[in-house]
Specification:
By secondary structure, the chain is an alpha+beta fold. The chain has helices at about 10-25, 55-60, 95-110, 175-180, 185-205; strands at about 1-10, 30-35, 40-45, 65-70, 75-80, 85-90, 120, 125-130, 130-140, 145-150.
Amino acid sequence: MRIEWLGTVPYGEAWDLQKKIHREVVEGGEDRVLLLEHPPVITLGKSAKRENLLLPPEVLRERGVEVFEVDRGGDATFHGPGQLVGYFIVRTDSAKRLVGRIEEVIKRSLLKVANLEFTGGPHAGVWVKGKKIASIGLALKRGVSMHGFALNLTVDLSYFSLINPCGLPSSVMTSLEVETGLHVPPGDFYPNVVSALREVWGMTH
């Protein structure tokens, strides 16, 4: 598996890159994980309900927030500065099993900096004391996944008030900074994810 930190990348560019890498992996290339940060953007998954986008797309764009309809599972979510995004373009025969492994990676990465109390939640993702700190949404085509996770580190949570994230009230979202007071931006945190990825993938290979 090849793991890369890309820094800040506009969503459209990252999506095009995912599609290019997906073709390469399908054709026999190595599995890839892309770690990055996005400028403000809202993405709508395949099961997104339009009422969960609380302002028209043109109004959001005027406010500097892009809107994309994408092919991952799930509903509406937000990506932006202070959020670490991970895209998994990897071979798998089970999206459900891959989601479980990604959840474990996120939990392990967070435990490297703070002692958090993980709980369950109504959707996939990572939850802390009943609030969602990380979202997960995947697409699986020809045995290779796309999309991945969004982990809230120092992100401005007020952006989530522009949507019903995954159909839930925006108040359900939290971040590492809110939960612990730690200010760890994505560029400083991503090595923890790299370490956790190696641990989790090493457990089963």
